[in-house]
Design a protein that fits this description.
Structural class of chain C: alpha+beta
Order of helices and strands of chain C: EEEHEEEHHHEHEHEEHHEEEEEEEEHEE
Strand content of chain C: 35-45%
CATH topology of chain B: MetI-like fold
Strand content of chain B: under 5%
CATH architecture of chain B: Orthogonal Bundle
Chains: A mainly alpha, B mainly alpha, C alpha+beta
Helix content of chain B: over 70%
Shape of chain B: globular
CATH class of chain B: Mainly Alpha
Strand order of the largest sheet of chain C: 6-7-8-3-9-10
Radius of gyration of chain C: 25 Å
Oligomer: heterotrimer
Number of strands of chain C: 20
Distance between the termini of chain B: 37 Å
């Protein structure tokens, strides 16, 4: 009874989201089915998404690129997360708060930093060329797909590190002691105790990485412009650049949202299955 | 020894890239391995060139506005949701923090342009739309932090205690709840501020001529003039770094409890 | 009868499909110390929270000095509450915490300061005014919480398992202190606990609850000596319960044995019942010791286990039909006993009583 006033506190939040998120997204979903000039129902824009080669390529590239970045991030981040919890307390705290920094850092700054560091005349490339007397056309190319994966690891590795450090920290040490006490060898402890406990957290981290990467494009845009064909870049160009075509952008956006939804759903199903009693 | 090296490597993984724009911004030129000379003129350029200067002001206004909006709608909502044990309440608590994950900024940007680019809702292409977009991107972060601080505070218990001591809703908020959730809310505010100052993707989709922010200038200058780009980048690094230091300090306070304040 | 401060009339509370409290009736007198005792989930805390105003009863009324307070918000009720997890405000010092209810009432600073000093003396924490809660031990925090609740000068003090987060030793110390403060100030107090020893030692009256329903209300001695039903008998203290039937006035049949029971005139019929005997009423001796007069109410058995409890020894005897009899003996009396030994057990007709099933 007395909570009724307090429920009013929720109103601004819900109204804001309804008006500026729910309404635009629903509107976008509707508009993706309407012809831009005649306003008649059409599946043309979706047909384009699945038949025109550059859109199909974009979806494929997005999936591959996001998977590659996420996998690198997930594996490296798990490793760093493990290292972090074995460090002395103050070192660990420093490392983990430092790794929360990329979260708020502009993608353009990262692009700039990597151009200076690893661009064609990048400092690291120059150092390696001089050290080993390599020719000028031998350099690490951040404008290639693998190069972009390396750049994005600046975001992905810290993100996963934070997730996994929390998981490792919550790992009950007495479980490991119990396992040893019951005669398990180290690999058996990993195989039967640690990995099953870590798996759900790992999958949760992985789904954050994948979902985030499927929508990411800022750093790619700053580094290579439209030269790399990604779904997110296609949407961006259709909304705000030369190839302005809003209904098509809407259809591509809905496709991206559904793609992300599927990925998140699949991983959360797997995660539930792996949880004890799930 | 090996561990020390590893630790240093892990630190430099973040620190080295961050140093690049900073070193660049203080150098006269940097063509080879080592930068040459020392200057502040690239920073000066931000302030003297009308376009970057007005972009800087716009960025600050947008960031403060986004922080205020997210704060004013998240904090009361977190308070209400923390006590709402219905499936609806739980659903919002679980969904709101991952909104940007489910609906990535690029799709929200497209949706905003679509929804608000024709009368009667002509918001797109001006600074208001930028503020709203930044608020949408920052909202999950602000919400997560405020909700967490209500959680760790055990707000319901303290509210009950205060009520049993005669405090009404207003007095409970002013004397007990707000002072205790303040550090968590500040963390959220700093995160939203830092994100807003650096946001570029959605901004470039919804901003017209009046919504030009600093990152949009940076985007242009990366192609035109790396030296001015370095100064803008550095400014963004400083901003993230400052909020990172403030957040670390606040987090230590939250962990350590108020006795640190007494000491 | 003294002044009635609080009257609960047929109070009921449901959470979804679960009936947390059902048909709860109680009168509390001025200056009385009443405990609600029961296992977790029995509804005792729900009743307390209804009195404090944190929950609204679905049925029934709560009267405070003959005024219905059902719809009165918590902050308007004249009760003070002490919580299990202390609930001290972490942003305030000890002094600020204690002065909080006075500040709310708009009392002047010097009055608040005096009151804080006085209350800190009362709870034996003088000089800790400027500490923060996180700098105090659990026992100290709960003392501050007690002082804070008292600062409001409430008509009723409500205590919700205030000691269950504390160590055994501090628990007993603080328990005695709460009781002596309550007596000194003539407070009316309601104390919720799942610890029967705590309830028996601190209260004027105990309300035993199970599954939302009052099982018995009485003084600690009544509750212990004359439990009304099986639940109270087993929940409060340890009880030997022989399942059997009443065969005659004061005669009870258990398996093939007949036991005599005093004070059982009202039970005459051939009813199914339990014969109840406390462990400390059982005497144990070895068959050789039996001399001329064999007492009545005799059981044969083998000692299963001897458990050293400090001043006492718990003797577990396996009797016919694998019935486990528990007896408390003094350490000296148990000295001559050993596990596996054949023994006889007995109890007086006065120490036994019947509980109808």
């Amino acid at each position: 009874m007395k909570h009724r006033v307090e429920h009013l506190f929720l109103a601004p939040f819900l109204l804001f989201l309804a008006f500026f998120e729910l309404y635009p997204l629903t509107n976008m979903a509707v508009r993706s089915f309407l012809d831009e000039t005649s306003q008649a129902f059409t599946l043309r824009y979706y047909l384009n998404v699945f038949t025109q080669p550059h859109y199909v390529t974009a979806i494929r590239n997005s999936l591959l690129f996001a998977s590659a970045c996420s996998l690198v991030g997930a594996v490296a981040g798990t490793f760093v997360g493990y290292i972090a919890v074995t460090l002395p307390r103050n070192q660990r705290n420093f490392l983990l708060s430092l790794y929360s920094l990329p979260l708020t850092l502009s993608g353009l700054v990262v692009a700039f930093a990597f151009i200076v560091l690893l661009g064609r005349n990048g400092v690291l490339n120059l150092i390696v060329q001089r050290l080993f007397s390599l020719p000028r056309d031998f350099y690490f190319d951040i404008y290639s797909w693998p190069g972009l994966v390396v750049v994005y690891s600046f975001y992905q590795v810290p993100l996963m590190t934070l997730t996994m450090a929390a998981v490792f920290e919550n790992l009950d040490r007495s479980l490991l002691e119990a396992s040893r006490n019951l005669g398990a060898k180290p690999w058996q402890t990993w195989r039967y105790i640690i990995i099953p406990i870590l798996a759900p957290g790992f999958l949760a981290g992985l789904s954050i990485q994948l979902a985030g990467m499927l929508g990411a494009f800022g750093t790619v845009l700053a580094l290579v412009g439209g030269a790399k064909n990604l779904l997110s870049i296609q949407i961006y160009y259709h909304t705000s650049e030369s190839t302005y075509n809003l209904p098509q952008a809407a259809a591509l956006s809905i496709t991206l949202i559904i793609l992300i939804g599927c990925v998140l759903y699949a991983l959360s199903r797997m995660e539930k299955k792996l949880r004890p009693g799930g | 020894m090996l561990k020390r090296l590893l630790f240093l490597f892990l630190i430099s993984f973040i620190v080295v890239p961050l140093c690049m724009p900073v070193i660049f911004s203080f150098s006269l030129f940097w063509q080879d391995i080592f930068p040459q000379g020392f200057t502040l003129q690239w920073y000066e350029a931000i302030l003297t060139r009308p376009r970057t200067y007005s972009a800087l002001l716009t960025s600050l206004v947008v960031a403060f506005a986004a922080v205020s909006i997210t704060l004013l709608i998240s904090a009361p909502a977190a308070y209400a949701l923390n006590r709402m044990d219905t499936p609806f309440g739980r659903w919002i608590r679980d969904t709101a923090p991952i909104l940007t994950l489910i609906f990535p900024p690029v799709t929200v940007g497209t949706a905003l342009v679509l929804a608000f680019s024709r009368p009667p809702l002509m918001l797109s292409g001006n600074v208001w739309m930028v503020i709203i977009a930044h608020s949408l991107i920052g909202l999950p972060f602000m919400f997560r932090n405020t909700l967490a601080s209500f959680r760790t505070l055990n707000e319901r218990l303290l509210s009950e205690a205060a009520a049993s001591l005669g405090a009404n809703l207003w007095q409970r908020l002013v004397y007990v709840i707000i002072p205790n959730v303040m550090p968590g809310i500040l963390v959220g505010a700093l995160v939203v501020f830092a994100i807003s100052i650096g946001e570029f993707e959605v901004t470039s989709m919804v901003a017209g001529f009046t919504g030009q922010t600093l990152p949009l200038q940076l985007f242009q200058q990366i192609r035109n003039d790396m030296r001015i780009a370095s100064a803008i980048s550095s400014f963004l690094v400083y901003n993230s770094l400052l909020s990172f230091i403030a957040i670390s300090y606040l987090s230590a306070q939250i962990r350590g409890g108020p006795d640190r304040r007494a000491a | 009868m003294g002044d009635i401060v609080l009257r609960l009339n047929n109070v009921g509370k449901r959470f979804g499909k679960i009936r947390a409290v059902d048909g709860f009736n109680l009168l509390v007198e001025q200056g009385e110390f009443v405990s609600f005792l029961g296992p977790s989930g029995c509804g005792k805390t729900t009743v307390l929270r209804c009195i404090a105003g944190f929950e609204q009863p679905d049925e029934g009324e709560i009267y405070f000095r003959e005024r219905n307070i059902n719809s009165l918000p918590p902050e308007m009720r004249d009760v003070g509450m002490v919580f299990q997890s202390y609930a001290l405000f972490p942003n305030m010092t000890v002094a600020e915490n204690i002065a909080f209810p006075l500040k709310i009432k708009g009392r002047p600073r010097h009055e608040r300061q005096e009151k804080v000093a006085e209350l800190l003396n009362l709870v034996q924490l003088p000089g800790l005014e400027h500490r923060y809660p996180s700098q105090l031990s659990g026992g100290q925090q709960q003392r501050v919480a007690l002082a804070r609740a008292l600062a409001k000068q409430p008509a009723i003090l409500l205590l919700d398992e205030p000691l269950s987060a504390l160590d055994a030793k501090i628990r007993e110390e603080l328990r005695n202190e709460i009781r002596s403060i309550q007596k000194k100030l003539g407070l009316t107090a309601i104390y919720v606990t799942h610890d029967q020893e705590e309830a028996l030692s601190i209260s004027d009256r105990v309300v035993v609850m199970d599954r939302g329903v009052i099982q018995q209300v009485g003084s600690p001695i009544e509750i212990y000596r004359h439990p009304k039903n099986l639940f109270v008998a087993t929940f409060v203290g340890v009880m030997n319960l022989f399942p059997g039937r009443i065969v005659d006035k004061g005669v009870f049949r258990w398996q093939s044995s007949l036991f005599r029971v005093s004070n059982a005139e009202k039970h005459t019929g051939h009813q199914e019942a339990y014969l109840a005997v406390r462990p400390e009423s059982i005497k144990i001796f070895s068959p050789q010791e039996t001399s001329e007069s064999l007492p009545s109410n005799l059981l044969e058995g083998v000692i299963d286990m001897l458990t050293f409890l400090g001043a006492n020894v718990r003797v577990t005897v396996r009797c016919q039909g694998d019935f486990i009899l528990r007896a408390n003996l003094t350490a000296e009396a148990a000295d001559r006993l050993e596990t596996g030994q054949q023994v006889l057990a007995t109890f007086s007709p006065e120490s036994a009583f019947l509980i109808l099933s």
